[in-house]
Inverse folding.
């Protein structure tokens, strides 16, 4: 089978790394990919948002299956276009992609189907919102309705900051048209966890859980990022919470999709807030998480191509999905300055010193010829904010964590930053 993976980050590298292990997969293309992906797949120079280009490539190259990594092409309707061209595609169609592309769409879905989530109200008029400032108290949760590269949630602590944030979002339009509508939510407390699920029209199957670290600095300080590291499984789940999630979240979500005519096929990523009252949904994304995928797929024993194929054909219920008991930890190495502005083109060294059983997933890397007076050589350089995801497994959580950090220390590039506390379990999470 010939597979085309769309995207260029660590998530797509992890998907390709796993697909390449399938005896059914003969050839993998990636549009556009990165320097690490190029070692496992043939990268083609087509941007993930260039839907026409992706469709034309898939047709010309008789692609048997397309797999869509990022949310933007999903929201643009890439799945509908590929399917219309006769290409089997793993990922939700445009209608379902609203579950990530519109916070208001998801909140009304959750409310309509009585799925636990924070109370909310939506606004399209700045003055109305200013009149209601602090409506649920402080901190005030303000969410741009549309896609904002993971940065559209602002949580001011007091009225002055809330007014300033509303002015920035709706007045200065710092998120562009994504904040033409704003969803205000009750502030939830607890521990966050991500649950990724495979979904087809008849079945929802949770993958192993993962814990993400969203802030840039140790101790959860500093601005939000796309995610600075993960470990799997998350240690806050127990049988009781899993049962509640299954009965109050997963089953009503699938039933809701069926009732609302949402033909969801792909990955549903559920962001959860868990406290003594149970789990509530913070958000839905409709794709694999990045960097959750890196640590979760390291633990998948089943052929990923077989799972994707089953989802595309509504046969998910017939597949047994097996996971290894190993623990996984993924540490993201980011460019200096990220998530603000950062420089690209820094040479990465030490990639060849990494242990054989540790996988370094590439997120923002490129190949470059570096020449001095005497000679030229090929080097791998940074080309994004999140650059690499060093991912290790172990029989225990501590072993996986120690191995990941031991290998992190062998890699370097100018300005490299990472969190030292990825995988350190605090007492709240252990409960
Ligand atoms: P989202 O993009 O919706 O996942 O929100 C980004 C982050 O904002 C989440 O990971 C939470 O840390 C935080 N957040 C979102 N909604 C709430 C809420 N209702 N209460 C508390 N924190 C929230
Ligand atoms: N790591 C969070 C996300 O993929 O949205």
């Amino acid at each position: 089978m010939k597979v085309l993976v769309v995207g260029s980050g660590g998530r797509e590298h992890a998907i390709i790394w796993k697909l390449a292990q399938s005896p059914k997969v003969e050839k993998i293309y990636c549009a556009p990919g990165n320097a690490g992906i190029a070692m496992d797949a043939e990268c083609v120079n087509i941007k993930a948002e260039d839907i026409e280009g992706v469709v034309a490539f898939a047709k010309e190259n008789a692609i048997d299956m397309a797999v869509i990594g990022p949310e933007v092409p999903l929201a643009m309707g890439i799945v509908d276009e590929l399917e219309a061209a006769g290409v089997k595609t793993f990922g939700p169609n445009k209608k379902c992609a609203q579950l990530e592309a519109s916070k208001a769409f998801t909140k009304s879905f959750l409310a309509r189907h009585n799925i636990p989530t924070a109370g909310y109200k939506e606004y399209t008029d700045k003055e109305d919102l200013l009149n209601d400032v602090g409506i649920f108290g402080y901190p005030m949760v303000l969410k741009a309705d549309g896609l904002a590269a993971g940065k559209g949630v602002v949580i001011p602590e007091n009225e002055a900051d809330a007014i300033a944030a509303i002015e920035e979002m709706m007045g200065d339009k710092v998120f562009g048209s994504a904040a033409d509508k704003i969803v205000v939510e009750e502030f939830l407390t607890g521990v966050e966890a991500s649950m990724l699920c495979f979904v087809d029209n008849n079945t929802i199957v949770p993958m192993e859980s993962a814990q993400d670290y969203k802030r840039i600095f140790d101790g959860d300080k500093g601005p939000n990022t796309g995610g600075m590291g993960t470990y799997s499984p998350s240690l806050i789940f127990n049988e009781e919470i899993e049962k509640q999630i299954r009965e109050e979240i997963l089953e009503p979500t699938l039933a809701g999709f069926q009732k609302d005519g949402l033909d969801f096929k792909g990955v549903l990523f559920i962001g959860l807030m868990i406290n003594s009252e149970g789990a509530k949904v913070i958000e839905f994304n409709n794709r694999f998480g990045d960097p959750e995928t890196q640590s979760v797929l390291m633990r998948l024993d089943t052929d990923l191509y077989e799972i994707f194929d089953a989802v595309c054909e509504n046969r998910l219920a017939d597949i047994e999905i097996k996971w290894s008991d190993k623990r996984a930890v993924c540490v993201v190495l980011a460019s200096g300055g990220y998530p603000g502005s950062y420089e690209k083109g820094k040479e990465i060294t030490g990639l060849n010193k990494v242990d054989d059983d540790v996988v370094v997933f590439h997120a923002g890397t490129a190949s470059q010829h570096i020449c001095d007076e005497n000679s030229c050589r090929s080097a791998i350089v940074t080309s994004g904010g999140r650059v690499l995801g060093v991912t290790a497994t172990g029989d225990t959580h501590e072993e996986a964590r120690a191995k990941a950090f031991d290998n992190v220390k062998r890699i370097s590039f100018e300005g490299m930053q990472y969190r030292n506390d990825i995988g350190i379990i605090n007492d709240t999470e252990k409960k």
